[in-house]
Amino acid sequence: MSRMTEQPLDMGQLLRETENDACGALVVFGGIVRNHHAGKGVSGMSYSAYGPMAEKVLAELEQETLQKFPVSECRIVHRTGDLAIGEASVLVVVRAPHRGDAFDGARYAIDTLKVRLPVWKHDFYEDGSDAYQDGVPLETAASRDAENSQ
Amino acid sequence: MSRMTEQPLDMGQLLRETENDACGALVVFGGIVRNHHAGKGVSGMSYSAYGPMAEKVLAELEQETLQKFPVSECRIVHRTGDLAIGEASVLVVVRAPHRGDAFDGARYAIDTLKVRLPVWKHDFYEDGSDAYQDGVPLETAASRDAENSQ
Amino acid sequence: MLTVELFGVLQQAAGDRQLQLDALPEPPTVAAVLDQLARRHPALAPHLRRVACAQGDSLVRQDQTIDTSRPLVLLPPVSGG
Amino acid sequence: MLTVELFGVLQQAAGDRQLQLDALPEPPTVAAVLDQLARRHPALAPHLRRVACAQGDSLVRQDQTIDTSRPLVLLPPVSGG
Question: Is D80 contained in some domain?
Answer without folding.
Answer: no
